[in-house]
Design goal:
The protein has two domains: about 45 residues, no CATH class; about 55 residues, no CATH class. It starts with 6 loop residues before the first helix and ends in a 6-residue tail after the last helix. It contains six helices and no strands. About 65% of the residues lie in helices and about 0% in strands. It is elongated, with a radius of gyration of 23 Å. The chain is mainly α. The longest helix is centred in the first third of the chain and has 17 residues.
Length: about 120
């Protein structure tokens, strides 16, 4: 599925075509659940195209980023945050953790100055 275009669609077709008639109730429920999942998410499962574009196909990268950017900074002992403070800190943290964006940020500050906070 990871290396074949429309792999999810092909798997779904095979499951539906070769679905055994006699199954235990719990196995049949799990199979039907898998079919429903593929039916509902097939449009998001073109992994081969994502691999060609060097895009992540799992949630691991996103979860790791959340842990690095958010959890490590905001969930330290005794910390309390208001929405504005969280927004500012996370914005700065993402700038610091992405070198290119950090440079873009400072170039913009140098060009336009700091925005006034109301």
């Amino acid at each position: 599925m990871k290396h074949v275009d429309n792999g999810a669609s092909q798997i779904l077709t095979e499951i539906k075509t070769f679905r055994p008639k006699k199954l235990k109730k719990d196995v049949k429920e799990k199979l039907e659940s898998a079919i429903t999942f593929f039916d509902n998410n097939e449009h998001q499962m073109d992994y081969a195209q994502s691999v060609r574009k060097n895009l992540p196909i799992g949630s691991g990268v996103t979860e790791a980023a959340c842990k690095t950017v958010v959890k490590q900074r905001l969930c330290q002992s005794g910390m309390r945050w208001k929405e504005l403070g969280v927004s500012i800190i996370l914005g700065l943290r993402t700038l610091v953790l992405t070198t290119e964006r950090f440079s873009q940020f400072w170039n913009k500050i140098n060009r336009y100055g700091l925005p006034q906070v109301a």
